[in-house]
Specification:
Layout lengths: L21 E6 L1 H4 L2 E3 L8 E4 L4 H9 L4 E7 L7 H13 L10 E5 L2 H4 L5 H20 L3 E5 L16 H16 L7 E4 L2 H4 L22 H15 L45 E3 L6 E5 L4 E9 L5 E10 L5 E6 L14 E10 L6 E11 L5 E6 L17 E4 L3 E2 L6 E2 L2 E6 L4 E15 L4
Parallel strand pairs: 1-4, 1-5, 3-15, 5-6, 6-7, 8-10
Antiparallel strand pairs: 2-3, 9-12, 10-11, 11-20, 12-19, 13-16, 13-17, 13-20, 14-15, 14-18, 14-19
């Protein structure tokens, strides 16, 4: 596999201006699907960033320049333009926006209006309302990235197709977003219709590989368009703000570096980590691995060094899984002591992973940040798969997965941190995977 690099970030470089840059989101269910709050329902306790929305994949492409935050996601299932203008935009303008160093919002709306557009007059009122709402955001200092609507329907899901005047007006609306709204200063537009459409479809159908029901987009789609979306966001975001491990100088210190890394061996030195029975190979000092239901899988560990001198933990899986859950978890050493017994700190994991092409049998690949306590643990999770499958694609070199997990609130009397990577294999499947894991940073997000 190729060298994993962070643009502009040398291994031992301390970055100036370190602090949060967050992206807000407004729109319909294609955005609402980005976050699941469970079971406590409170951001900072159990917040899962889903692969079935753009956040995981776009955030990875941004390489630490910004993150998506659950409490700045105001999207609603079934939302129309009226919902966005009268509810979501006012909520965003009354949010913690003033604390943000950079105000960027991503917007996707209109598909729930489209079937009601029977002529240009009915559409005109919605266009005017949306334009007014976007201008309100611009006046409040927001930069606005608009994602157009997508194609709709497939040969298997004909009920969500648009026909006649509605289909014509849907094309007109998306063209208007690109040709008119996109000309406003402070607005950029990404045209998703062409990206999602089935070539030469007279019905305006969606590519069936990009949807679960002809209307909602899957992880494969967001993976494939994430580079284009990130490229439009980058000019507003500047240099990387969220760092993976950057050397010994980055280690946590109560006075000198309170947002420092809580992992004492993030750079994977040594080779005397404990390798349990059932595995072959070596682990760096203090690193751990555990698995569940993987009896039919060969698991080989090694430590590899890339051309930049960075050490990575490499895991190779091969074999056939049985029925039921098949999970592997790898974690670096992590220091819980600075967090104390009172709890309340917000922690996050920032880390990298590179997956060799041609993998099979992988249901999901997660970055997990958790804290356990006698009364149950809390979690921040970012997923890159959805619908039971990690999308096929290039996850090497510049396309390696970069994750900033949602914040996890440390509960009182926590017994420890459980932060790292998690691989879920498909049941009753042939599995082949080689993955590199490295440069984990476990940070106190509330002290940025």
């Amino acid at each position: 596999m190729s060298t994993i690099s962070m643009p502009g970030v040398a291994l031992n470089e301390a970055l100036p201006g370190y602090g949060p840059v967050e992206i807000a989101t407004i729109g319909d269910s294609n955005f609402r699907a980005m976050f699941t709050l469970a079971p406590n329902g409170a951001v900072g306790q159990n917040t899962f960033m889903q692969g079935a929305g753009p956040a995981s994949h776009v955030q990875s492409r941004l390489r630490g320049r910004a993150r998506f935050s659950a409490d700045l996601c105001f999207a609603q299932n079934g939302a129309t333009i009226a919902n966005l203008v009268t509810s979501q935009i006012p909520a965003l303008l009354q949010s913690r926006q003033k604390a943000l160093q950079t105000r960027v919002v991503m917007l996707m709306i209109g598909t729930n209006n489209a079937s009601g557009w029977t002529n240009a007059t009915t559409q005109a009122a919605d266009k005017a309302a949306l334009l007014s709402g976007i201008k309100d955001l611009l006046a409040a200092g927001w930069q606005v990235l608009v994602l157009t609507g997508t194609a709709r329907g497939t040969t298997y899901f004909t009920g969500v197709r648009l026909t006649g005047a509605s289909l014509s007006l849907w094309h007109d609306y998306n063209h208007w977003l690109v040709s008119h709204v996109g000309l406003l200063p402070g607005v950029r537009v990404v045209d998703l219709f062409a990206q999602s459409a089935m070539p030469n479809s007279a019905e305006g159908d969606m590519n069936p590989g990009y949807t679960v029901d002809g209307l909602h987009l899957n992880a494969k789609f967001w993976h494939d368009v994430s580079g284009q979306i990130a490229a439009e966001l980058e000019p507003w975001l500047g240099s990387p703000r969220y760092r993976t491990a950057v050397g010994a100088s980055d280690t946590y210190h109560a006075t000198n570096n309170p947002a420092g890394n809580l992992s004492s061996n993030a750079l994977a030195t040594g080779s005397d980590g404990t390798v349990p029975a059932g595995y072959a190979g070596t682990l760096p000092t203090g690193w751990t691995i555990e698995s569940y239901g993987m009896s039919g899988i060969n698991q080989i560990l090694s430590i590899v060094t890339d051309a930049e001198g960075t050490r990575w933990v490499q895991l190779t899986l091969s074999g056939t899984t049985s029925t039921g859950s098949q999970i592997v978890q790898i974690r670096p050493p992590q220091d819980h002591a600075p967090l104390g017994s009172a709890g309340g700190d917000l922690i996050q994991l920032i880390a990298l992973a590179e997956i060799a092409p041609g993998f099979t049998g992988i249901e999901n690949f997660d970055f997990h940040c958790g804290a356990g306590s006698p009364n149950g643990g809390d979690d921040g999770l970012i997923e890159f798969g959805s619908g039971g499958e990690l999308p096929a694609g290039d996850y090497t070199g510049a396309n390696a997965l970069f994750a900033i997990t949602p914040d996890c609130r440390v509960p009182p009397n926590s017994w420890g941190l459980v932060c790292g990577w998690r691989i879920t294999c498909k049941p009753s499947s042939s599995v082949s995977l080689t993955v590199r894991l490295g440069r984990p940073a476990i940070r106190r997000a509330n002290v940025y």
